[in-house]
Amino acid sequence: MPDDVKASARRPYRSAARASRAAATRAAVLQAARELFTERGYAATPVSAIAARAGVAVDTVYVAAGRKPALLRELVETAISGGATGVPAEQRDYVRRVREAATAREKIAVYAAALAGIAGRMLPVQRALAEAAVDDPDCAALRGEISARRAANMRLFAADLRATGELREDLDDDAVADVVWSMNAPEYQALLIGERGWTPQRYGDWLADAWTRLLLAP
């Protein structure tokens, strides 16, 4: 086999190996940041500590995930998506299942169950974000962005419920969206799961029952 053909055959393998190593490094950095932000808090965690926990150089942290605000953003996005990278709302599996569900009860059940899965991942990250937002403008902007994005998504959820014809007639979509937005907020999760000791499963079951009673016509 000619040398140029051999080199060409080796390139995809090397490229895949490099990508795999980069993904593993990024995952290690994000895991280290999550652990340290949870243990020490955002402000008390220098990038050097994240690098040491991940077993990489400080420069590698910046290359793999960026500065601390960028790291925190990645932790938020991956906690929401449940994967190695953030996924836009419309591409998430549970969002597709909500839209495919035939009845409002089914849509609420699917969404509440998804929130139960997300809550356990999100709580430590949300605590770090709330702390960081006090003094870090980038983190404050991120917190505001996440809240606004959630509110916009809840307006879409309300419209999806409205299309089933099962919502109470005395509630408009804005009211429905506000109720859902407030009850799936990290602050609400922190009260029930973090302070009152509810399990994420109990929290999800409560949301499904409460929203069904509050929002749907008898």
Protein architecture, described:
The protein has 218 residues and is mainly alpha-helical. The chain folds into two domains: 1-66, Arc Repressor Mutant, subunit A (Orthogonal Bundle); 68-218, Tetracycline Repressor, domain 2 (Orthogonal Bundle), CATH 1.10.357. 78% of the residues lie in helices and 0% in strands. The chain is built from ten helices and no strands. Helix 4 runs antiparallel to helix 6 and helix 6 (104-135) crosses helix 9 (186-195).
Give the structure's gist in a few sentences.
This protein is mostly helical and 218 residues long. The protein has 10 helices and no strands. Helix 2 crosses helix 3 and helix 6 (104-135) packs across helix 9.
Which key features would you list for this structure?
218 residues; mainly alpha; Arc Repressor Mutant, subunit A; Tetracycline Repressor, domain 2; 2 domains; globular
Q: In whole angstroms, how far apart are the ends?
A: 75 Å
Stated plainly, the CATH topology of the largest domain is called Tetracycline Repressor, domain 2
Task: Provide the CATH superfamily of the largest domain.
Answer: Tetracycline Repressor, domain 2
Strand percent estimate: under 5%
Order of helices and strands: HHHHHHHHHH
Radius of gyration: 21 Å
Summed up, the helix count is: 10
Helix/strand/pairing category: mainly alpha
Please give the CATH architecture of the largest domain.
Orthogonal Bundle
Give a count of the beta strands, DSSP E runs of length 2 or more.
0
Portion in helices: over 70%
Low-confidence stretches: none
The average pLDDT value, as a whole number, equals 89
Number of domains: 2
The main β sheet shows up as:
none
